[in-house]
Specification:
Length: 105
């Protein structure tokens, strides 16, 4: 049977192909190159996911930072926006307020 009876079957098959005898040295080289290729591919995917996660958080912060969380409007438009901005800034937990034009014009 096998010279290593205490190892799992999967490890036995992996070692059998990675540690080939002299007649099968070419298979061993191909297996080694394939294993290195898979390892590099997995490493690239892990790095890409980490970078994309960081970029996603950064992009979300920038989008939310440049777009208002609340739009205040009035039918017919706001006549004195300076007074409205001052009134909004005095409300509790309001960090900032600024006028904005929505639409084409």
């Amino acid at each position: 049977m096998s010279a290593r009876p205490n190892i799992p079957f999967e490890l036995h098959v992996a070692l059998r192909y990675l540690l080939a005898k002299r007649k099968q040295a070419f298979i061993s080289v191909i297996s080694l190159i394939s294993t290195i290729g898979v390892a590099v591919g997995v490493m690239a995917v892990v790095i890409a996911l980490a970078v994309m996660t960081g970029l996603q958080q950064e992009l979300r912060d920038r989008i939310l930072g440049s777009n208002p969380h609340v739009y205040v409007s009035k039918v017919g438009g706001i006549d004195d926006y300076h007074a409205e901005v001052a009134r909004l800034r005095q409300m509790p937990r309001v960090i900032g307020a600024a006028p904005d034009v929505i639409g084409q014009g």
